[in-house]
Specification:
Blueprint (H helix, E strand, L loop, with lengths): L1 H9 L9 H10 L1 E3 H8 L3 H13 L3 E5 L7 E5 L1 H28 L3 H14 L2 H15 L1
Antiparallel strand pairs: 1-3, 2-3
């Protein structure tokens, strides 16, 4: 995150790394409800609202009534947000390339191992594993 933040500063772009997920999601989808965005990004509703507020302050996105349910609000990328994404695309490609190089150099199997960890947790959630460890400890007393 620090390297990306420094890269944005060096490019003279007012952009925070934590905005990347939501802004690129909106760039791809144009509109999305906050709950959907949170689920798709794997972030809490609160975290997405915080980022949305920051992006809205900078007029990169706006809120609008949801087409599916008018009582809900959807996020929509603005023309300014689209223009910023176009400007940042080469920088994002550089970040992706540098990250790929780093992973290949220092941890070539990291992503596969994280996928395996995620699958193992899907099969047996961590809370269940903790309960089993507690039970084993209590039986050993």
């Amino acid at each position: 995150m620090q390297g990306a933040a420094q890269t944005y500063r060096e490019a003279g772009v007012d952009f925070e790394p934590r905005w990347f997920g939501l802004l690129t999601l909106l760039h791809a989808r144009e509109t999305i409800e906050i709950g959907e965005a949170a689920a798709e990004l794997g972030q809490s509703h609160v975290a997405v609202v915080q980022v949305a507020n920051q992006l809205e302050e900078r007029k990169l996105i706006r809120r609008t009534p949801s087409k599916a349910d008018g009582r809900r609000r959807a996020l929509v990328i603005t023309a300014k947000g689209e223009a910023l994404c176009e400007k940042l695309e080469p920088i994002w490609n550089d970040i992706r390339s540098a990250t790929d190089t780093l992973l290949a150099e220092a941890a070539p199997h990291l992503l596969a191992e994280l996928d395996a960890l995620d699958q193992a947790l899907t099969q047996t959630p961590h809370a269940e594993r903790i309960r089993a460890a507690r039970s084993k400890r209590e039986k050993a007393k």
